[in-house]
Write a structure and sequence with these properties.
With 168 residues, this protein is an all-alpha fold. Helices cover 68% and strands 0% of the residues. It has a domain of 71 residues. Helix 2 packs antiparallel against helix 5, helix 3 packs antiparallel against helix 4 and helix 4 packs antiparallel against helix 5. It is elongated. This is CKLF8 protein.
Length: 168
């Protein structure tokens, strides 16, 4: 007995929209003129300073400085990632992600962990520990507290943005 097969093909508009929308790359020049944008650039520059000051020493001999390095490098990479997302307006292309909640969680966790790392960094700096690296560690401690205050500011702005989204 011969069997008949029916094949139905459909075209998805999602792939057409995805390829059409991804061909142009948006760039938000105004983001760097906002206070959250300026804070983010400051976090990147001073965060880089924190971990390079520690990386230039024998930090691996002291576990406390290893923790500070982890926090500084981890949040530096993520902050660069988020800056790229905001500068290219990628968040507008992925509306399924709750960006205000993601920003609040990111900045809040960065503030808390950077505060802990800055305190650990400051508490670990002593002349008796290693006088050769004292100045680098002391400077990294100072800049870690400055970066912490930047993340605190961005946490505040993220909270305001998140709260205005949840009230709508």
């Amino acid at each position: 007995r011969p069997r008949s097969h029916t094949v139905t093909t459909t075209s998805s508009s999602f792939t057409a929209n995805l390829s059409a929308s991804s061909s142009t790359l948006a760039y938000d020049r105004e983001f760097l003129r906002t206070l959250p944008g300026l804070l983010m650039v400051t976090e990147i520059v001073l965060g880089l300073l924190v971990w390079t000051l520690i990386a230039g020493t024998e930090y691996f001999l002291y576990p406390a400085f290893g923790w500070v390095m982890f926090v500084a490098v981890f949040y530096w990479v993520l902050t660069v990632f988020f800056l790229i997302i905001y500068m290219t307006m990628t968040y507008t292309r992925i509306p399924q992600v709750p960006w205000t909640t993601v920003g609040l969680c990111f900045n809040g966790s960065a503030f808390i962990l950077y505060l802990i790392a800055a305190i650990v960094d400051a508490a670990s700096v002593t002349k008796e520990l290693d006088s050769h690296n004292y100045n680098s560690w002391a400077a990294s401690s100072f800049f870690a507290f400055v970066v912490t205050s930047c993340y605190a500011g961005n946490t505040y702005f993220s909270f305001i943005s998140w709260r205005s989204r949840t009230l709508q």
